[in-house]
User: What shape does this take?
Amino acid sequence: MQPEKVKVQLPSEFKPLSEDWWRYAVIEGGRYSLKSHTVARILLLWGRAKEARIACLRQFQANISDSSYQLLVDLATQYGFTDYRWTEKEITNTVTNSKIIFKGLEKNTEATIKGLEGIEYVWVDEAQLISEKSLRILIPTIRKAGSKIIFTLNRITDLDPVIKKFITDPPREDVWHLKTDYRIAEKYGWLSPEIKREIEYTKLYEPEVYAHDYLGQALNQTDRNIITAKQVMEAMTREVVPEGGVEVGVDVARMGSDRTVFVKRKGFKEMDRATFTKLRTTEICDHLENFIGQDKDVIIKIDDTGVGGGVTDEMVKRGYNVFAINFGAKARNPDKYPNLISEAWFELAHNIDQIQLQENKDLLTELSSREWGMDAKGRRAVESKDAYKKRGYRSPDEADATILAFYEVGMISNDDFAVAGDYSAPQDDDDDSWGYD
Assistant: This one.
């Protein structure tokens, strides 16, 4: 019995997906470029045409909600593919016996990938994050005759492992490469007026964001970036043994749209991260106690400027080991850095090649896009938060909490920050006044 025929419209730019000559497809583009929706439709059609084993992979997938599962379910429902059934972990076709599974590659990579033997079609979504190690194991594992691997991505740099292997290295005859963007969706009338206005606004006022988010161009990496995207990506795929004390960085939201972020590390390994919005001071402290596990020996470093001071006060009252950090305070080495935040950024840059970070897209952007310059005294200064926002980025709350977590407070004196309720450090309303514009 054959599945009931259903008409599915696909953009003509993606027609090579229906051809047999390629082994690898690299489809890159920004938001609304139709890459994920088109590949998902193709996989559903392949699964209806014959019995096939299909794997949908991402480098980072903590649970099924991090995968393409919901997109496939929504499309199967939209097109009335009644021959598909789904459980909490996989999708099956009741007529052809095709099966679609979902896996993340970052943990137990070799065992996970080698378990894919016999898979015919592979879709690696968010492939800008896949590691070289995962690629080395994945490619020879998918070896069934006629098997295909599709990568969809919005490249971060021109050195992303998928780009380097299949696009910039010597050309391969078995690779189909497509660069797409939102204008294809606009061409077919699939872009809503609301999204069009948002894109045009971003194009006019936030050109760097427009170039990456909507045109799919690599993030602008210059010699003024403190940390490169490649370094952050490597930190997010690195395995580090957690040795050393536990320390927590806390960046407290100053406005409704900003985020309160907690980051916990043990040695050079990030252990946990939590992000909140629109919390009152006591609510932040309650969440922080739960996050720490009520271990009062843990070092807690709080950005004490602005509303962060209230969190510092409350956590001190509760008996915790609090270091109230003022980003505008004096650096340990004032001959090299004009303030603590600049020194903290370059300290993280110095250690980034040893650190393990959890996968986090906002953190990747914030750490790899902050720039630096020289002040009037020839010292290295991180750009101000205000200047950073004017370039089109949101408040770097994930990055600030990470910097606090990894900043070594044991190497500075109590005169440079407030400790355990001694709030003698200089207090600024915000850190927008330092750095360069």
